[in-house]
Amino acid sequence: MLILAGLGNPEAKYAGNRHNFGFMAVDAIAARWSFGPERKRFSGLAREGDIPLPQGGAARVLILKPQTYYNDSGKAVGEAMSFYKLTPAEVVAFYDEIDLAPGRFRMKTGGGAAGNNGIRSIAGRIGPDFRRARLGTGHPGHKDRVLGHVLSDFHKVDAAWVRALLDACADAAPLLVAGEDERYQTEVMRLAPAEKLDPKAAGRPDL
């Protein structure tokens, strides 16, 4: 079993927020690979399904959307990981990343939370060595504007690149479940190319 956990907030008023990009990504994966119906489990909403492996066969996957609000995402992830007796390497967290330009995508394993309270919550429950799928939303330019930025909806002008990135994350998922994170990142960016710009303003490449 592999857990793909999307970060977001549960109320309908948050559905289109940048902070719910993780929810959107795992929903796209579940839809693409015809997962079963959503049901309440592990302090969240969960769906199970199979994603084919590039070398043949399939991997069993749990899609999890914590319903404990973004900053306490670790509760649901910890419950699911404990139930299935998994290691952190078998958990992938999809979340919005303000330190990546809009439409950029990066995979990483371990490291700090970089100010993201949802990631900090998961690390506090299962340790830092889980896999992270970072979906770039850009930075509003000043730290005082970050909360308003992440808790506001994507603009209409963003719709095309948001949809392209979500579809790419879903279509390339066989590489992710095979543990080929670098190839997954490369394929997502091939399918949904985005300019490598400074998250705050054009001029400096993102890292």
Describe the structure concisely.
The protein is of the alpha/beta class. It has a single domain, classed as Rossmann fold (3-Layer(aba) Sandwich). Helix content is 33%, strand content 21%.
Provide structural commentary:
Helix 1 crosses helix 5 and helix 5 (159-171) runs antiparallel to helix 7. The protein contains seven helices and seven strands, in the order βαβββαββαβαααα. It is globular and about 45 Å long. Helices cover 33% and strands 21% of the residues. It is an alpha/beta fold and 207 residues long.
The arrangement of helices and strands along the chain is EHEEEHEEHEHHHH
Q: Class in CATH?
A: Alpha Beta
**Given the helix and strand composition, which structural class is it?**
alpha/beta
Q: Label the overall shape.
A: globular
**Radius of gyration, Cα only, in angstroms?**
16 Å
CATH architecture: 3-Layer(aba) Sandwich
How far apart lie the N and C ends?
31 Å
Helical content stands at 25-40%
What strand line-up does the widest sheet have?
A: 2-3-4-1-5-7-6
Largest sheet: 7 strands, mixed
| Mean of all residue-level pLDDT scores | 93
Question: CATH topology, anyone?
Answer: Rossmann fold
Spans of at least 5 consecutive residues whose pLDDT stays below 50 are: 202-207
How many structural domains? 1
- The CATH homologous superfamily is called Peptidyl-tRNA hydrolase
Strand count: 7
Number of helices: 7
Strand content: 15-25%
